[in-house]
Amino acid sequence: MKTLPLVLAFLAACAAVLPCAVLAGPAVAIDYPARKPGLWEMRSDDGSGAKEGSHTMQQCIDAATDKALREMGQGMGRSLCSKQDLRAEGGKLVIDSVCKIGSTTATSRAVMSGDFGSAYRVESKSSYSPPLMGRSEGMAVVEAKWVGPCKAGQKPGDMVMANGMKMNVLEMTAARRGKQP
Question: Which helix (H) or strand (E) holds 16?
């Protein structure tokens, strides 16, 4: 089934865009590094190395947008996850989480590495009980790199998906809440 790898890749991309999406709850002693403002390109795949499972997207951010996206991710984690443990381990950030996706419990470990100024990488492995969309395990890898300043006409929060679709994640979230971004 090809749908699940696409879903996992998209979720992994979101995790890269929102590095603390799987975290919530009390403040942690370890702070996430802020990404360098500008245009970021993120390639996500299902960890198999197969080209057909790979997707690339771009996002324009500034410091305020990066912070807002992290806070949005923390809010999602608070509502979905019963466990979110973050620790530094050998120069990397390791996140262990237990989250509910519908009736499925996802137990995940994500390892984040990089400097967040020029590049970072997220590797995530999850198990699902009961299976999610027919799969009991999933893996995702996201590699992100800073490409340079945002392109002319782009504003913070603008995303260009692999299929060319453009959206602004801040405007979408604000519209859902009935507010201006």
Answer: helix 3-17
Residues 10-62: tens digit of each pLDDT: 444 444 444 434 333 333 445 677 899 999 999 999 877 677 778 899 999 99
Q: Please check whether residue 157 lies inside any domain of the structure.
A: yes
State the Cα torsion 81-140-11-23 to the nearest 10°.
30
Identify the CA nearest to 77 among candidates 159, 144, 19, 137. Answer: 19
Helix 169-177 to helix 63-80 angle, to the nearest 10 degrees?
Answer: 50
Range of the domain at 54: 3-173
Q: Which residue has the tokens 């942690």?
A: 28
- Does a structural domain hold residue 181? no
Kindly state the greatest CA–CA separation across the chain: 46
pLDDT reported for residue 30: 59
Total number of domains in the chain: 1
Count how many Cα atoms sit within 13 Å of the Cα of residue 20 in the half-sphere of its side chain.
25
Q: How far apart are CA 157 and CA 150, in angstroms?
A: 10
The DSSP annotation for 69-118 comes to HHHHHHHHHHHHEEEEEEEEETTEEEEEEEEEETTEEEEEEEEEEE-SSS
